[in-house]
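Lecture notes, continued. The same structure-token format from the folding unit now serves as the input rather than the output. Read the line below as a description of shape only.
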């Protein structure tokens, strides 16, 4: 089987590329980090901040679904009814929210 001239040239180019050194790899990643990663993270942070400021922070209505907030055993901390990282504004107890105001 004989290779065409273009295929032979492509094969030689790929073979030469595989034997070349890896110098400049760290520089490439440094440039990509500075040019793409830092601005991308900055844009995401700004977007999260703006969306957080627009959020009304209203307490959702309490609906007593039978499959949620089941307490078959008390929690081993506090009064046994509050979760470990309980937030009175967002986490409802089985009988409803603790307070109705912010």
């Amino acid at each position: 089987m004989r290779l065409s001239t273009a295929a032979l040239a492509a094969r030689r180019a790929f073979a030469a590329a595989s034997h070349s050194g890896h110098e400049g790899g760290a520089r490439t990643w440094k440039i990509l980090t500075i040019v793409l990663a830092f601005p991308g993270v900055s844009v995401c942070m700004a977007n999260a901040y703006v969306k957080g400021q627009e959020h009304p922070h209203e307490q959702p209505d309490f609906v007593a679904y039978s499959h949620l907030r089941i307490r078959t055993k008390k929690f081993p901390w506090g009064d046994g009814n509050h979760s470990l990282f309980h937030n009175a504004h967002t986490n409802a107890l089985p009988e409803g929210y603790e307070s109705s105001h912010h």
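Point for the exam: The chain has two domains: 5-54, 60-97.
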